C-alpha cells in the first residue's frame, strides 16, 4: 500500500524520457557542489527554457540570484541531514534521500543525521549498491503515505498534471509535507512516539527503506533517462 501510494503520487515510473534525463542532470550537477544555472538547463533539453519550468514544478529551490540550489532531495544549503561525498559536503531534504542519492550520483556518501526522538546522531556509509555501514545498527527510517483522490494523484513527477492536482512543491523540500516527516531514529522503540502520532506513517529498517526507494525513485529514473539517451 505504501509503495503504491508513493509511486502514484511521487514516483518516477511514468516520467518522460527527456524529463528523466533533465532531472538526473540537475541532481548530478548539484552533487558536484555547484548550483544549477538557467542557461545550463537550456542546453540539456530540447524544451529550452521550458526545462527550467519543469524543474521548478518538480520542487526545485532557488537562491536569491535565481540559481537552483536544491532539487531531487539534494541540497547545497544546510539541512539536518549531512551528506558527504568525496571532497564536498552537501545535505539532503529528508532521511531516505541519503539512502537513494548515492545510486543516482554513482558515489559513496557518509551520512550524519539526528534521531528525531533522541537527538543522537545516526551515521551511515551508503554506496551506489546499498548501505555499507550503519551506526547504530538498529537505526530505522520513517515514511509517510501520501494519499489523495484518484483524480488528484497526477502531479508527481510522473505527469505534472492539471492545476487541480496535488501540488508537488508542497510535498518536497526539507519542511515539505512528505520530506518533513521522513526521519531517522536510533531504533524502532525510539520511533514509537512518532508512529503513534502519525496514523499514515510507517517505520522501515534501513534496508527496507533503501529497497523501497530503489523501486519507486532510483531504478525508474535511471531506466527512463537511459531510454531517452538511446533514442
Q: CATH topology, which one?
A: Beta-Lactamase
Give helix % range: 25-40%
User: Any low-confidence stretches, pLDDT <50, length ≥5?
Assistant: 148-166
CATH class: Alpha Beta
Q: Count up the domains.
A: 1
Q: Beta fraction of the residues?
A: 15-25%
Cross-sheet strand order for the largest sheet: 1-2-3-5-4-6-7-8
Number of extended strands: 11
Largest sheet geometry: 8 strands, antiparallel
Mean pLDDT: 83
Class of secondary structure makeup: alpha+beta
Oligomer category = single chain
Ends distance: 34 Å
Number of DSSP helical runs = 8
Short description:
With 231 residues, the chain is an alpha+beta fold. The chain has helices spanning 2-10, 17-31, 38-44, 49-57, 95-105, 168-171, 192-196, 206-230, and strands at residues 61-62, 68-71, 74-75, 81-85, 88-92, 109-114, 121-127, 130-135, 140-144, 184-185, 201-205.
